[in-house]
# Entry
Amino acid sequence: MSRRIPNIKFVLAALVAVLVLHSESLFACAACFGKSDSRLAVGMNWGIFSLLGVVVCVLSGFAAFGIYLARKSASVAATAAVEQAPASTQKD
# Structure
């Protein structure tokens, strides 16, 4: 049994080595292969723009939340300053 495991590992390593060394067109997409007007390239571009749109929406949400927190903090600080004003400035 212990003799079979090294043989299987050797066969898997050899298979991976062959795939890595012979992969020039195996993993080529439209952008890498050079045909930029194919349907695959158009789909890839739509995918890139869709993901870019999602990232922009998420970052806009973080920015809007930060602006909300800054305004809320300024409002609370202004209210606290009015409440702590000295009594001598108020006339009866």
Summary: The mean pLDDT is 81. DSSP finds three helices and no strands in the chain. Residues 30-78 form one domain. Residues 3 and 73 are 70 Å apart (CA to CA).
